[in-house]
Recover the amino acids of this structure.
């Protein structure tokens, strides 16, 4: 079986305008956020950290989807893999975007320069963790994380691109072996990154499944992003006659799975801490279950689980490209809200702190990441043309017509 004659699997070229618009938006967002440093440094760094956590999670979600697709031999995902590879290719950019967080460590992390106003218990916890929570080791660990993520994302993409012109070069078996061997270090790196960059905002508190919670959010955000990108590519003619309702259906089932998994991990973490009823553990939830943070948490619960769960139960909804794109956009907003609830109460425990810097930081990180990711796709086929499984992926539900 070969692809239909009008199937556009040639090189992607006309993305210069989108790259320029996204890049300019990112630069303007960074300029506005930098201006915010003069107005409110703590808020500027906090807003940037949330936006960075969001952008990084989407890049990591794309990388994990590529690796899981290889390991599980997911036939449906082959035609989507090149887009995911381009999204994962933004990870070197996030290594550069991590610099502002390093510069703002004194504003963000109480353990960098402990203030006398901190509670005795917090000061004692910081002292006990000093061998781990110190600036040089923090930066070294971040460097290791980015090396791991970058190596696997670049190798998988490079081998995939090489197959476009030489199908015999480092075939699927080698890519599958690399993905299988890479999943443990990539997972460990993102787990410890969550501990370092987000959990240590409250140095006296800890949760052994905090990294799993972040992973669950990564997968929900990454799959939601793929649903949006699939539809966007179809609307611009890149994946027309390639992606079918069956591809959306398969992605929708995976999205439903991780929506449930996110809710399960969130509840499990809360239940364990509630049952133990240990004061130093409960304080983290006390700030997030009172006042405006409690209302924010309910919005996240309903928006990130209840509504998408009920909608994604419908087979018909999972097969509609436009519906899946709308669900994806909604879940991306909810993913940001979840990360905001996860991070911000450590810095502003009194309540939700709305600020224009939240918007400028998202535009900064999102604009640059979009420009960089689209640029990675330019000059390459929108699907892995040399992949031995491509024909089977093109046949995945080929009898179905694309529903608008």
């Amino acid at each position: 079986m070969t692809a239909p004659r009008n199937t556009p699997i040639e090189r992607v070229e006309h993305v210069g305008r989108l790259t320029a618009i996204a890049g300019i938006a990112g630069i303007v967002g960074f300029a506005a956020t930098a201006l915010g440093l003069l107005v409110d440094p703590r808020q500027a760094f906090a807003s940037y950290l949330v936006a960075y956590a969001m952008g990084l999670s989407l890049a990591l979600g794309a990388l994990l989807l590529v690796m899981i697709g290889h390991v599980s031999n997911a036939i449906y995902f082959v035609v989507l893999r090149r887009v995911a590879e381009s999204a994962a290719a933004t990870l070197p950019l996030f290594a550069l975007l991590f610099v502002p967080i390093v510069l703002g460590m004194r504003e963000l992390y109480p353990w960098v320069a402990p203030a006398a106003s901190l509670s005795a218990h917090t000061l004692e916890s910081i002292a006990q963790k000093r061998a781990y929570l110190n600036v040089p080791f923090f930066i070294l660990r971040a460097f290791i994380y980015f090396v791991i993520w970058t190596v696997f994302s670049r190798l998988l993409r490079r081998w995939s691109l090489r197959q476009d012109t030489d199908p015999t070069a480092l075939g699927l078996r080698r890519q599958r072996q690399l993905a299988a061997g890479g999943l443990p270090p990539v997972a460990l790196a993102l787990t410890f990154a969550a501990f370092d960059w987000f959990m240590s905002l409250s140095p006296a508190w800890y949760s052994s499944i905090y990294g799993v919670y972040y992973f669950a959010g990564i997968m929900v955000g990454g799959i939601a992003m793929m649903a949006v990108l699939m539809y966007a590519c179809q609307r611009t003619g890149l994946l027309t006659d390639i992606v079918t309702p069956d591809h959306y259906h398969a992605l929708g089932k995976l999205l439903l799975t991780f929506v449930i998994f996110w809710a399960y991990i969130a509840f499990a973490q809360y239940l364990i801490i509630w049952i133990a009823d240990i004061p130093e553990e409960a304080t983290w939830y006390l700030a997030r279950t009172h006042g405006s943070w409690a209302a924010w948490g309910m919005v996240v619960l309903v928006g990130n689980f209840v509504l998408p769960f009920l909608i994604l139960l419908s087979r018909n909804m999972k097969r509609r490209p436009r519906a899946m794109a709308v669900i994806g956009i909604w879940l991306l907003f909810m993913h940001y809200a979840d990360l905001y609830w996860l991070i911000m109460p450590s810095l502003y425990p009194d309540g939700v702190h709305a600020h224009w810097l939240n918007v400028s930081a998202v535009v900064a990180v999102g604009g640059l990441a979009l420009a960089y990711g689209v640029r990675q796709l330019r000059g390459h086929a929108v699907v892995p043309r040399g992949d031995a499984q491509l024909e089977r992926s093109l046949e995945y539900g080929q009898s179905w017509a694309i529903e608008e």
